[in-house]
Amino acid sequence: MPEGPSIVILKEQVTPFLGHTIRRVSGNTTIEKERLQEQKVESFRSWGKHFLVELPDFSLRVHFMLFGSYRINEAKSWAVPRLSLGFDVGEINFYACSVRFIEEPLDLAYDWWADVMSEHWDEKLALKRLRSAPDMLVCDALLDQDIFAGVGNIIKNEVLFRIRVHPLSTIGALSAAKLRELVREARQYSFDFYEWKKQFVLKKHWLAHTKRTCPRCLIPLKKGHLGRTNRRSFWCEHCQVLYA
């Protein structure tokens, strides 16, 4: 699943289409895609894992789910796009994703303060929301898009390894200092992810995600599908403390 930093990169890559009119629309989506014909793109935005195309009277939301992808100025020969947008200057093709319209203004539809990569990110708000759920597991909290919009499984595993916290720890068991560290590292790692992804070296920097051995303790990492979200976790039983 593309995480927030990847969507920010997509937003940057489609800048050449900004201000241009959608001339051609196709794809196997069931939404009323004809509405997009002859619509002028006013802006491209992102919120967490949502890619947003703002048009004069409504917006298009693209969510890449688990296996979604995109191609700019090219198409996959083996797959039909969920949605294809053609412009005078090129095209954008979206695959295996969810697309829908948003009728209200985006500033009313989205909580920009929850987006870890937004300039409006509010650390204090994230802390307040975490403290209101003391029984929540940290592995679930980091994937809660109402708290950390844009954080996905890779960021979750790497953040918990960085701050030495076991994924089955509960929010209420963390000290105030450790909770602040969790929040700040979620944002910091998202920007590290963004830089590494742009340089095509992201996987080289993984310390825990999909790894077999702890680089600190040199012992086998544990692996399991944990928490309410049941997503894959990788952790070290020795250096990641279980707070419970």
How would you describe the overall organization of this protein?
With 244 residues, the chain is α+β, with helices and mostly antiparallel strands. The protein has two domains: 4-109, MutM-like, N-terminal (N-terminal domain of MutM-like DNA repair proteins); 122-235, Helicase, Ruva Protein, domain 3 (Orthogonal Bundle). It has helices at residues 4-13, 106-109, 123-131, 138-141, 153-162, 176-198, and strands at 24-26, 43-47, 50-54, 59-63, 69-72, 83-87, 90-95, 98-102, 222-226, 231-235. A hairpin with a 4-residue loop joins strand 3 (50-54) and strand 4 (59-63). Helix 1 (4-13) packs parallel to helix 6 and helix 5 (153-162) crosses helix 6 (176-198). The protein is elongated, with a radius of gyration of 19 Å. Residues 2-102 form the Formamidopyrimidine-DNA glycosylase catalytic domain. GO terms for molecular function: damaged DNA binding; DNA-(apurinic or apyrimidinic site) endonuclease activity; lyase activity; oxidized purine nucleobase lesion DNA N-glycosylase activity; zinc ion binding.
SSE layout:
Layout: H1 4-13, E1 24-26, E2 43-47, E3 50-54, E4 59-63, E5 69-72, E6 83-87, E7 90-95, E8 98-102, H2 106-109, H3 123-131, H4 138-141, H5 153-162, H6 176-198, E9 222-226, E10 231-235
Antiparallel strand pairs: 1-6, 2-3, 3-4, 4-8, 5-7, 6-7, 9-10
Helix pairs in contact: 1-6, 5-6
